[in-house]
Write a structure and sequence with these properties.
The complex is a heterodimer of chains A (415) and B (341). Chain A contains twelve helices and eight strands. Chain A is of the alpha+beta class and 415 residues long. Chain A folds into three domains: 68 residues; 197 residues, MetI-like fold, CATH 1.10.3720.10; 64 residues. In chain A, strands 1-2-3-8 form a four-stranded antiparallel sheet. In chain A, strands 4-5 form a two-stranded antiparallel ribbon. In chain A, a hairpin with a 2-residue loop joins strand 2 and strand 3. With 341 residues, chain B is α/β, with parallel strands linked by helices. In chain B, strands 10-9-11-8-12 form a five-stranded mixed sheet, with helices on both faces. A three-stranded parallel sheet of chain B has the order 4-1-5. Chain B starts with a helix and ends in a 29-residue tail after the last helix. The chains are: A alpha+beta (415), B alpha/beta (341). At the A-B interface, helix 2 and helix 11 of A face helix 1, helix 4, helix 5, helix 6 and strand 10 of B.
């Protein structure tokens, strides 16, 4: 039997050698090498063979798996995604109940993964930058505290840290009936943190309108202020004005519309709290552990970034009369970012992938829900694992893409 | 040159992919005999069912089921190696051929029997799902559990039964799903949930792991049927028959009054049922591809069903489970094995 790749390969070889010939006439070289001895043709020939072989191996593996599974009576295919799941999930950002499909459990798991990853990335970045700068502080105590933090946190396995936050810290909170209470609206116990949930009433559209208006106004002010600064050299307090706009406009609209917002307060019903918004301990423990752990790495990246900016830059900036804050913001950080961004990207990727440790403490992320319960109830390991791997790959590639775009924006411009 | 290497690698890889099919060509019995031991999948630690003792030796009713199969094949109940598996890993381990049989507290359901490429060879313990609650919450019956937070182990039928039960009763619940039963107990002990749900036989064992077992109690409700038994791969009928009949021999042995202590004397018995079971008459073993005295080896080394039960989960063990429905049909239970003839 001729492997399917072979015919394609022969066909391609013909067309490539044809192109080679045409090129030779354009180059008007008197005698070119025969296609068999043309290095370009040879290179292409072997690349096509390799490519065909790779596809063929892939095809054989898939085909072999499928036929083996069929011969052993194991169900295959993606039909199971439409079947009713029949199990409960504690936390879901998309509507879910046990009567919905296995396909829906995928979305529940995915959104939970994205939520904890996004929360982790934001806090790890902020914390990492603060600690990284603190590490370089001229204050001995601050610098040493940052050093101790980094050396402790990054040298303990993440899984242990997750267990620590979950079992050692959060489980020592009181039971629901002895909750820590703040003003009858905020409750903390071993079932989670309960917050009042906003309930939007009619007329809240006006407030949204004011938010949009404020955003437009902020952009306008910034453009105008920059133009004015370039023209006259006067500095306009853009930041303060922007904050004032963003707070005041929606607030005014809120009162004009007759305060169209009510709060759903959590209350003890039976043995648990109901109503409001719940942050479950699993989410909090995972969030804290991921943030602290990744922040310790980000801090070192930030430190190396800042140290990479030559001392002369700071001295030059000081010589121009810029104060410390502006030196850091306008001179040092923009140059440090070029060093910081690439390793920062890989820390973000690590954080997203590490979030799959959720399964150890029962946070319903993609691995726990979809690759855990769904896989086990359907038994379709190959399909479920393939989907899950594809999802993590996609998330990681998307993060890389956006970080690379950002990197290109801050990278040094060679003119 | 680089491309040439990758082509060669590719071809080698293909060849290996194609040859993997032949690994499964030999029957399970042949491959077990060749290895010289039985590879058996068990839990990673569940008192009474499969748990390593302080010396590292595995004990439990599921473990003894494996030992009985080993005794039948090799005449040596010790020719077993155990692979501890979580609930999530168990079926894949069996499907992939990593283990020869699964004896891991596994509920027999239609979906598992039909769509996983596996066969359930019988039932070695009839169980049902129940609830373990903290005494503090003052609940006496499962119908009072509306709004409760429930700790469960991932990848079990328990997850589905729980959801069905609360839905049909019109009650709400919040599931916290852990990977292993140790973590589930830890979560319950830490007060993360009001209720722990599992098979009733496990609840007693899990409760004994709490620092203060008296602080929790088992509710009287049984919300599901959980027939637990050994599992084998589909498509090898001989192996399926061996595991099935090893279990049946143990149950028949109890019915015939054969025990570890009296089995040597019973070799002289003139009861034809006893003779067939112990292999002093007939060729029952040969029909299964086993030595004719396989029944004798099972009873001599592992014992009959009652001995296996009482040793591991019976009233005199820490679990203290009465025979209940797991008694012989002649004693008011539902154990009824087809005759060895």
């Amino acid at each position: 039997m001729i492997p399917p790749g072979l015919t394609v390969m022969l066909f391609l070889q013909g067309s490539f050698s044809g192109r080679g010939m045409k090129k030779q006439t354009i180059d008007s070289r008197p005698t070119g090498p025969k296609p068999l001895y043309d290095p370009r043709v040879r290179a292409l020939f072997f690349q096509v063979i390799s490519l065909a072989a790779v596809f063929w191996v892939g095809w054989v593996l898939i085909d072999n798996t499928l036929s083996n599974m069929q011969s052993r009576g194991i169900s295959t295919g993606f039909g199971f995604l439409g079947e009713s799941a029949g199990f409960g999930i504690i936390m879901h950002l998309v509507p879910y109940d046990a009567t919905m499909s296995y396909g829906r459990t995928f979305w529940v798991g995915l959104t939970n993964t994205l939520l904890v990853s996004a929360m982790g990335i934001v806090t790890a970045t902020i914390l990492g930058f603060v600690i990284g700068v603190a590490r370089l502080s001229s204050n001995w105590l601050v610098a040493k505290v940052a050093l101790v933090y980094i050396e402790i946190i990054r040298n303990i396995p993440l899984l242990l840290q997750i267990f620590f936050w979950y079992f050692a810290v959060l489980s020592n909170l009181p039971s629901p009936r002895q909750s820590v209470e703040v003003g009858g609206a905020l409750f903390l116990n071993n079932r989670g943190l309960y917050l009042p949930g906003p309930v939007l009433q009619d007329g809240f559209g006006l407030v949204w309108g004011a938010v949009v208006l404020a955003l437009v106004a902020v952009v306008g002010v910034r453009v105008w202020a920059k133009k004015r600064q370039l023209a006259t050299g006067d500095i306009f307090p853009t930041f303060k004005v922007s904050i004032a706009l963003l707070i005041l406009l929606p607030l005014v609209a809120y009162f004009i519309a007759g305060r169209p917002l009510e709060w759903d307060l959590p209350a003890l019903k039976g043995f648990n709290f109901g109503g409001g918004i719940t942050l479950i301990p699993e989410l909090v423990a995972l969030w804290i552990a991921l943030s602290l752990y990744t922040a310790s790495f980000i801090a070192e990246i930030v430190r190396s970034g800042i140290l990479s900016v030559s001392q002369g830059q700071t001295e030059a900036s000081k010589a121009l009369g810029l104060p410390n804050g502006l030196t850091l913001r306008l001179v040092v950080i923009p140059q440090a970012m070029r060093v910081i961004i690439p390793p920062l990207t890989s820390q973000y990727l690590n954080l997203v992938k590490n979030s799959s440790l959720a399964t150890a403490i029962g946070y319903p992320d993609l691995v726990a829900v979809f690759m855990g319960t769904t896989l086990n109830q359907t038994g379709q390991a190959v399909e479920v694992v393939a989907i899950t791997m594809a999802v993590y790959l996609t998330i990681s590639l998307l993060i890389s893409l956006f970080m690379n775009l950002y990197n290109r924006a801050v990278a040094i411009k060679e003119r | 040159m680089k491309s040439m290497t990758s082509v060669a690698l590719g071809i080698a890889f293909c060849a290996s992919a194609l040859t993997t099919t032949s690994v499964f060509a030999a029957t399970t019995l042949e491959s077990v005999k060749e290895k010289g031991h039985l590879q058996c999948g068990v839990t990673s630690g569940l008192p009474g069912f499969s748990q390593p003792d302080e010396k590292g030796a595995w004990t439990g009713i599921d473990v003894d089921t494996c030992r009985a199969v080993a005794a039948a094949i090799f005449g040596d109940a010790k020719a077993v190696e155990f692979t501890p598996l979580t609930a999530k890993e168990r079926f894949t381990a069996l499907q992939s051929g990593e283990i020869d049989m699964l004896s891991r507290n596994t509920t027999w359901t239609l979906t598992r029997d039909v769509s996983l490429g596996l066969n359930f060879a019988g039932v070695n313990y009839y169980d049902g799902q129940g609830f373990l609650v903290n005494k503090d919450i003052g609940v006496d019956d499962a119908t009072q559990l509306d709004g409760a937070t429930v700790c469960i182990q991932a990848g079990t039928t328990t997850e589905l039964n729980l959801s069905d039960y609360f839905r049909t009763k019109g009650m709400e619940f919040k599931p916290i799903v852990f990977d292993t039963s140790e973590q589930t107990v830890q979560g319950f002990a830490a007060g993360r949930c009001d209720v722990l749900t599992s098979d009733r036989s496990q609840l007693a064992a899990l409760r004994s792991k709490l620092s203060d077992p008296g602080s929790a109690k088992i509710l009287p409700n049984t919300i599901s049927k959980e027939p637990l038994g050994p599992v084998v791969r589909q498509g090898d009928d001989q192996w399926f028959n061996i595991v099935k009949w090893v279990l049946n021999v143990q149950i028949n042995a109890e019915e015939l009054g054969l025990t570890m202590a009296n089995v040597d004397d019973m070799l002289k018995s003139d009861n034809p049922s006893v003779q067939r079971l112990l292999g002093t008459d007939g060729d029952m073993g040969a029909k299964l591809g086993l030595p004719d005295d396989f029944g004798y080896a099972i009873v001599k080394q592992v014992g009959n069903y009652a001995e296996m039960y009482n040793r591991n989960v019976g009233p005199d063990t820490p679990l203290g489970l009465e025979r209940g429905i797991n008694a012989l049909w002649t004693d008011g239970g539902i154990l009824y094995a087809p005759p060895v003839r």
